[in-house]
């Protein structure tokens, strides 16, 4: 065990905990810079170097998330006595708080450059994440049902953010004509380049790319009087209230709410 490297440890913990494939991929991303180092050699100096190098290429938010995974891996390993000593990652995320994005609520007219773009129209009327839409398989865009919908599920080409993101989103009548023109990205990060171009073309602040449309959708649904639990379901957010986990969200209900947007 003394010579076990970080990758070996991660594989062992995968076998012990059977994490979701998406979680395991995040583990591998997090350990990549140190995966071949011996676990016993990971101390304060190595952690400091990991953080310093990470700040050169990652956002504070992403770096904080990856350190969080490492912190959790070390905690699990300590629990099983696979490693000894203190957890060197406990304070490694100190000061890595990033400013919460709060994009300005802009009117539909502001986006006139994109009014004929199918990605924009579908994001404007659904609140989806750009990766959810850009990477969706054609068969998961269901237009033959009485209420057409986007069927968001984990796919081989891209996983959703979490299981709460598995959902059906009714297709708003206003964006239905654009659905047939959607083009499905095979990129490693579907929609990323579209989002960057969107931000640059409209002169939006750093970080306010396609995700700003998700914020806009949320604000507009609130203004339209959308039920709180239903809005969370449309957005694919987890429920933190027991009653929200009870019962179903029929697509008819979701459709009624989403049609409140004009």
The total count of strands amounts to: 3
Count of individual domains: 2
- Tell me the name of the CATH homologous superfamily of the largest domain: Intergrase catalytic core
Estimated radius of gyration: 21 Å
Structural class: mainly alpha
CATH topology description of the largest domain? hpI Integrase, Chain A
- Looking at the overall shape, the CATH architecture of the largest domain is Orthogonal Bundle
Query: What spatial form do the alpha-carbon principal axes imply?
Result: elongated
Any low-confidence stretches, pLDDT <50, length ≥5?
Answer: none
Q: Residue-averaged pLDDT, rounded?
A: 91
The span between the termini is 62 Å
Biggest sheet, strands in spatial order?
1-2-3
Q: Hey, roughly how much beta strand do the residues contain?
A: under 5%
Biggest beta-sheet profile:
3 strands, antiparallel
Following the backbone from N to C, one meets helices and strands in this order, namely: HHHHHHEEEHHHHH
Percent helix range: 40-55%
Structure description:
The chain contains eleven helices and three strands; from the N terminus they run ααααααβββααααα. The model has no long low-confidence stretch (mean pLDDT 91). A three-stranded antiparallel sheet has the order 1-2-3. It has two domains: 74 residues, DNA polymerase, domain 1; 151 residues, Intergrase catalytic core (hpI Integrase, Chain A, Orthogonal Bundle). With 262 residues, the chain is mainly alpha-helical.
């Amino acid at each position: 065990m003394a010579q076990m490297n970080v990758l070996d440890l991660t594989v062992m913990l995968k076998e012990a905990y059977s994490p979701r494939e998406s979680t395991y991929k995040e583990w591998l991303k997090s350990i990549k810079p140190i995966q071949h180092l011996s676990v016993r050699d990971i101390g304060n100096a190595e952690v400091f170097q990991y953080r310093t190098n990470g700040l050169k290429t990652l956002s504070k938010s992403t770096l904080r998330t990856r350190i969080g995974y490492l912190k959790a891996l070390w905690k699990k390993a300590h629990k099983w006595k696979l490693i000894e000593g203190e957890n060197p990652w406990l304070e490694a995320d100190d000061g890595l708080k990033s400013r919460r994005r709060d994009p300005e609520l802009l009117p539909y007219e502001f986006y006139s450059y994109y009014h004929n773009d199918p990605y924009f129209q579908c994001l404007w009327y659904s609140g989806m994440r750009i990766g959810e839409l850009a990477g969706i398989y054609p068969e998961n865009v269901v237009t033959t049902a009485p209420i057409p919908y986007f069927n968001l599920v984990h796919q081989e080409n891209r996983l959703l953010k979490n299981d709460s993101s598995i959902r059906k989103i009714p297709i708003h009548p206003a964006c239905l004509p654009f659905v047939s023109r959607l083009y499905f990205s095979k990129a490693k990060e579907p929609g990323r380049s579209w989002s960057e171009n969107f931000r640059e073309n409209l002169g939006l602040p750093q970080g306010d790319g396609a995700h700003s449309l998700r914020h806009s959708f949320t604000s507009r649904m609130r203004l339209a009087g959308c039920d709180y639990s239903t809005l969370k379901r449309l957005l694919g957010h987890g429920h933190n209230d027991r009653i929200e986990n009870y019962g179903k969200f029929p697509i008819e209900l979701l459709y009624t709410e989403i049609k409140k947007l004009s």
